[in-house]
Amino acid sequence: MKKSLIIVSTALTVTACAQLDNAPEKQFPKNIIYMIGDGMGPAYTTAYRYYNDDINTQEIEKTVFDTILTGTARTYPDDDTYVTDSAASATALSSGIKSYNGAIAVDSDKKPVKTMLELAKEKNMLTALVVTSQINHATPASFTAHNESRRNYDEIANDYIDNKINGKLPVDLMFGGGTDYFIREDRNLVNEFVDNNYQYVDTLKNINNITQIPAIGLFNKIGLPYAIDATKNHLEVMTDKALKLIDNQSDKGFFMMIEGSQIDWCGHNNDITCAMAEMHDFANSIEIAKQYVDNNPDTILVVTADHSTGGLTIGANHKYKWEAQKVKDFKVSARKLSKKLFKNSNLNQEWNKYSSTPLSDHEATSLNTAKSSDEASLFIAVKEVINARTYTGWTTNGHTAMDVQVFSYGKGAEHFTGNLNNTDIAKQLIKFIKG
Predict the structure, then answer these.
(1) How far is 110 from 99, CA to CA, in rounded Å?
(2) 266: which of 274, 313, 399, 426 fits an S-S bond (Cβ 3.0–4.6 Å)?
(3) Are the beta carbons of 400 and 308 closer than 8 angstroms?
(4) How far is Cα 39 from Cα 52, in angstroms, rounded to an integer?
(5) Within a 10 A sphere around the Cβ of 200, how many other Cβ atoms?
(6) Whether CATH 1.10.60.40 fits 314-393
(7) Mean pLDDT, the chain, as a whole number?
């Protein structure tokens, strides 16, 4: 008799375990926050740790990146190179399928592939895109549109209306730039959004005028200004507003992709002051998202990069040093500084407005020589001064094939550990969405 009871008890336990195994929807997060630091290779997060360090303490403090690091990811495309562009990488990160450089959510045969944003919309989840580039740039486009070339900006913008999911527009909430592509002579997409009951604002200072979803905010003609050249951290403001708008708006949960787009643009320019300001904006946005996860445990936060840009090294010129405090000394981007210097006849006086460290005679001679040529030469010379002062090195103005880091936090974070393919990240998030 006792044996029978043991057998029955064991059978009930096995049945209960089987029921748990067949109920993944209880184990998977309801909400997904997917953050991509465009161009943010490992050197960027390391540099940011030292840039963000409190010099008044002996210890070098951890950053938010250090606290949620779980793995790395391989970024190569399905192309004749190991070096990806943002479109191919974003296609992999959005769909789980490798493609060629320039592909916007199409495979190597140029056939559309289903993205996780589209799958989320099919599941009646709310969807959102928050970026500092134009919202039809390579990364956000690869979640929403399908095109054989990332350069077909107008066609991609059209997909934000035309690529309907179950008869509905694909994205419920959009923040970024891009009025040049959404308000055109041949088609005014903003009016079409408004006709579909979207609230619309066109300046970041009026973002709080948006009080409901669906909504679209286009805050510049193309991308937003660099964070270092602005009065506010754009991504931080947009992330905070987006999460407040979307919070608890759907029983089905939400999918939100947030991109620190211009880390990459600063990297292409080999501008360390610009890059660290963008990293700070991105880090603050991650902190906001992390706090949201703490308040809403049924949420997963995944952060990664599409590739690394510029071949950044923290340490250069045969010296064992990197001057983080001298990076902070510059108050504007190298691009803006060179424009200001080019327009002003008194180069030294103008320089001192944006740097507390005056030019040496050698630096002044170098800048004046470049200025006598053209503005492009002056821009290069300004960067050379900044990089020399800070001992910052760069190997390219393009991308590199470095593995990038993966960060995860919240429900399901354990699925993003070790060395992954970038497609693995997408496949797991898609698994969450499908339930």
Answers:
(1) 9
(2) 274
(3) yes
(4) 19
(5) 17
(6) yes
(7) 94
Quote the CA–CA distance of 266 and 264 in Å, as a whole number.
5
Q: What digits encode the pLDDT tens for the residues 11-39?
A: 444 444 444 344 444 589 999 999 999 99
Torsions phi, psi for 24 (to 5 deg): -65, -25
Q: Which residue in the block uniquely carries the two structure tokens 């969450």? A: 432
Residue in 75, 133, 143 with CA at minimum distance from that of residue 104? 143
The whole-angstrom distance between residue 14's C-alpha and the CA centroid of its chain comes to 44
Q: Which residue has the tokens 């990293």?
A: 279
Three-state SS at 364: helix
State in Å, rounded, how far the first CA of the chain is from the last one.
Answer: 42
Give the residue extent of every domain in the chain. 28-311+397-434, 314-393
Which pair of structure tokens corresponds to residue 395?
């190997």
Q: Cα dihedral sign for 361, 364, 370, 372?
A: negative
Q: Give me the count of residues in the chain.
A: 435
252: three-class secondary structure by DSSP:
coil
Tell which residue, 253, 273, 255, 254, has the closest CA to residue 263: 273
Q: Taking Cα atoms as reference points, which of 118, 131, 224, 208 lies closest to residue 168?
A: 118
| Coil/strand/helix, residue 60 | coil
How many of the other CB atoms lie within 10 Å of CB of 167?
5
Active site residues: 86
d(CA 94, CA 340): 40
pTM, two decimal places: 0.93
The first and second tokens of residue 77, run together, are 């495309």
Task: Report how far residue 247's alpha carbon sits from residue 38's, in angstroms, rounded to the nearest whole number.
Answer: 25
Measured from the Cβ of residue 195, the count of other Cβ atoms closer than 10 Å reads 9
pLDDT of residue 26: 56
Longest dimension (CA), the chain: 101
Low-confidence ranges of the chain (pLDDT < 70): 1-26
Does CATH place domain 28-311+397-434 in 3.40.720.10?
yes
